[in-house]
Specification:
Blueprint (H helix, E strand, L loop, with lengths): L9 E6 L6 H13 L2 E7 L10 H11 L6 E6 L3 H7 L4 E6 L2 H17 L4 E6 L9 H9 L10 H12 L3
Parallel strand pairs: 1-2, 1-4, 2-3, 4-5
The chain binds adenosine-5'-diphosphate (ADP).
Length: 168
């Protein structure tokens, strides 16, 4: 897909990805088909208390997207629209699971539009089988040694087990 001035179409899928789930991966795979390049951008947000460091989250994302040649993994701590400009990206991709997501996402998209009207946000509906799935739920189950094999790829399952094994 090319825009009229022959520039490649670059999209950014931003998020915490702490850790990446099958819900995120579904959006990544589908978005990768719609754009020339997709950058999955891990938000380096100091106000959240993540389980995995930004570097760990990036490494895990790289592992589970290694079969997708037009997907790159990056991170940002700047304003999203400024990061987008620095990567020559025009479109923000976000996933929607529910009405609750929708309210927050509208607020985010409107803010980004205000900051840079040339950047578009597009929403992709979750595959219904992942509509209940979040990184928080995955962490909660893994913490109590429950099985997360239907929720995350095997690499993530192993990383979660290792993380919680090293915690009291
Ligand atoms: P954030 O902290 O920015 O919400 P997340 O990693 O939780 O970061 O989510 C990043 C994006 O992925 C958001 O647009 C979120 O709505 C979407 N998302 C999260 N889980 C799913 C899922 N199960 N199905 C589809 N989209 C999802």
């Amino acid at each position: 897909m090319s825009s009229s001035n022959n520039e490649s179409r670059v999209a950014v899928y931003p998020g915490s990805f702490d850790p990446v789930t099958y819900g995120h991966l579904d959006i990544i795979r589908r978005a990768a088909k719609q754009f020339d390049h997709l950058i999955v951008a891990v938000l380096n947000n100091t106000s959240k208390n993540p389980l995995f460091s930004v570097d760990e989250r990036k490494a895990l994302l790289s592992e589970v997207t290694r079969d997708l040649p037009n997907v790159a993994i990056d991170s940002f701590r700047d304003l999203l629209v400024r990061f987008m400009r620095s990567r020559h990206a025009q479109v923000i991709v976000r996933g929607i699971r529910s009405i609750t997501d929708f309210e927050y996402e509208i607020q985010l998209a409107s803010t980004n539009h205000q900051l840079d009207p040339e950047i578009e946000t597009i929403f992709m509906m979750t595959n219904p089988k992942y509509s209940y799935l979040s990184s928080s739920i995955v962490k909660e189950i893994a913490q109590f040694r429950g099985s997360v094999k239907d929720l995350v790829p095997p690499e993530i399952e192993r990383a979660l087990a290792a993380k919680f094994a090293s915690r009291p």
